[in-house]
Amino acid sequence: MSPTEKEIINNTRDYVKRSLLNAEAGHDWFHIERVYKNSLLIASIEPCNLFVVSLAALLHDIADSKFHKGDETVGPKIANEFLTTQQVDSETLNQVVKIIENISFKGGHTVKKHHSIELDIVQDADRLDAMGAIGISRAFHYGGYKNRLLYDPAIKPNVSMSKEQYKKSTTPTINHFYEKLLLLKGLMNTETGKKLATKRHDFMLDFLNQFFAEWSGEV
Ligand code: ADP
Ligand code: NI
């Protein structure tokens, strides 16, 4: 007998948790759990296929290309193989794999090759986790991992840098706010995502004001 949708979701959760046991803190199981919860929150308001949203949220970072020499086909392939073991119907499987292929930010320059409300929802949930207090924490964690400066007044943000140039650069972490994090609010797909993004966006602006005030010795 094929597993039920509920069983498949539980199996997927267990599988992802096991796979990400040694993942770095920006892309660990807790990131997945937050994205999953935010996806369900948005999905409770926006009509969609909840099974597809759940599986895509759980599997969206199963193999981040950053950690596979930039190979963006590894994640979709692993997800495909896992969902096949769960006897997921081909329609659902294809939708989930397409979401994983298209979810990444990529500087917002790449045109999405797949369109669905389910992709919009999981992408919004993933972007929300790069904003607000969690987003700030993740950015400085990533900057520390890359041994980047917190800030350097002599290095101005460069919003037109390609992802490749960016990876090789030694851009301070504060610049990442201007190059990506403050752009996310304007990229939200769903009305619910937009509403949730506003508070997190404003929190980042408050943080930056305080940061610069402290930097210049004003407070
Ligand atoms: P996603 O996995 O959501 O597509 P990324 O892999 O690009 O996004 O980034 C994961 C996390 O690491 C995000 O919180 C992001 O802001 C942060 N991050 C990525 N690149 C940088 C950077 N150059 N400086 C600081 N933080 C970064
Ligand atoms: Ni993610």
TrEMBL record:
Residues 24-140 form the HD/PDEase domain. InterPro entries: HD/PDEase_dom (IPR003607), HD_domain (IPR006674). Pfam families: HD. PANTHER family: HD_PDEASE DOMAIN-CONTAINING PROTEIN (PTHR33594:SF1), SUPERFAMILY HYDROLASE, PUTATIVE (AFU_ORTHOLOGUE AFUA_1G03035)-RELATED (PTHR33594). This is Phosphohydrolase. It comes from Planktosalinus lacus.
